[in-house]
Amino acid sequence: MTSPESCVDEPASRARAATIPQLVAEVYEAATAAERGHLIAQLLRPLGVLSLVAVADGIFAKIRFRSGWQDLNIRLEDLQNVRAAHVIALVDHAQQVSVEAVDGLAQLLIASPVLSGSAAAVVLVSALVQRARSRQPGTA
């Protein structure tokens, strides 16, 4: 039998067990096609051409070039071949370039009625907020 305290701690312990890239991939897999496009667009914005070519066999470079460099507009058919492993690689790389771009996923998830109800999204938002707070000066 689980105690009420263990139920409260479940999202926090799950966040520690899963990495942010894995959580983003889980959210991506559960998302609608339109929401997937928003997630990928958020992660692609700060990345340059060389970054995109080097990540996930260039799948995101192809999407970015088809979409146009100035106006990022991801088509649903662009996402058909994007798998969880690709998303994990993209998030890993995006965190190295711009941790703020990954942290910005929290706002995107909170604003989405579809995604904000998923367990993976709740855990991801919690992990992103916790990470952002830990980077602020004067917080521990």
Average pLDDT over all residues? 81
Characterize the overall form: globular
Number of alpha- plus pi-helical segments: 9
Low-confidence stretches: 1-8, 13-17
Task: Indicate the percent of residues in helices.
Answer: 55-70%
Description:
The protein is mainly α and 140 residues long. It has one domain (18-135). It is 68% helix and 0% strand. The longest helix is centred in the last third of the chain and has 17 residues, at 119-135. The radius of gyration is 16 Å and the shape is globular. The chain starts with a helix and ends in a 5-residue tail after the last helix. Residues 1-8 and 13-17 have low confidence and may be disordered.
Q: What's a concise summary of this model?
A:
By secondary structure, the protein is mainly alpha-helical. Helices cover 68% and strands 0% of the residues.
Distinctive features:
140 residues; mainly alpha; disordered N terminus
Write the layout of secondary structure elements.
Layout: H1 4-17, H2 20-30, H3 33-44, H4 49-54, H5 59-67, H6 84-97, H7 99-103, H8 105-111, H9 119-135
